[in-house]
Design brief:
This protein is mostly beta strands and 149 residues long. The protein is built from 3 helices and 12 strands; from the N terminus they run E-E-E-E-E-H-E-H-H-E-E-E-E-E-E. The chain has a single domain, classed as Electron Transport, Fmn-binding Protein, Chain A (Pnp Oxidase, Chain A).
Length: 149
């Protein structure tokens, strides 16, 4: 699957201990009517715990210049460290990364078994973004879209 280019996102939620987020590339539009998204999160993910608590999650589609954010949110660092110097805003009760190409705020409809991951299905409550070129994961590396050849 390393040869399948995917967009890079940060899936986020807020719980009693503050915001949490994880880098994810298994994220996609699920339905247009009603407007639904899905995001796959590792069963051991602290972000998944916050998604359950909050009943909401956000998806921030990272831009080509945000590879360091992707790396930072892919670590097991404490959630407070991940968000410490990251500019973000809360919309519809979820933290969303400023400067993201696109962002989507969702109400959690359900969690479904996906092997070592759980698949979060959410109804889109709000969306927007700053536009620009996306960050892509391909061949085990973060790259700008125009670097995939």
């Amino acid at each position: 699957m390393a040869r399948l280019p995917t967009g890079v996102t940060i899936v986020s939620a807020t719980g009693a201990e503050g915001p949490a987020g994880a880098t994810a590339n298994a994220v996609t539009s699920l339905s247009l009517e009603p407007p639904l998204m899905l995001a796959c999160l590792d069963r051991g993910s602290r972000t998944l715990t916050r998604v359950r608590e909050a009943g909401r999650f956000g998806i921030s589609v990272l831009g080509a210049d945000q590879a360091e954010l992707a790396r930072g949110f892919a670590t097991k660092a404490p959630q407070s460290e991940k968000f410490r110097d990251v500019s973000h805003v809360e919309r519809e009760g979820v933290p969303l990364i400023n400067g993201a190409v696109a962002w989507i705020a969702c109400r959690l409809l359900g969690l479904h078994d996906g092997g070592d991951h759980e698949i979060a299905v959410g109804e889109i409550l709000d969306l927007g973004g700053d536009g620009g070129d996306p960050l892509v994961f391909f061949g085990g590396e973060y790259r700008p879209l125009d670097a995939i050849r």
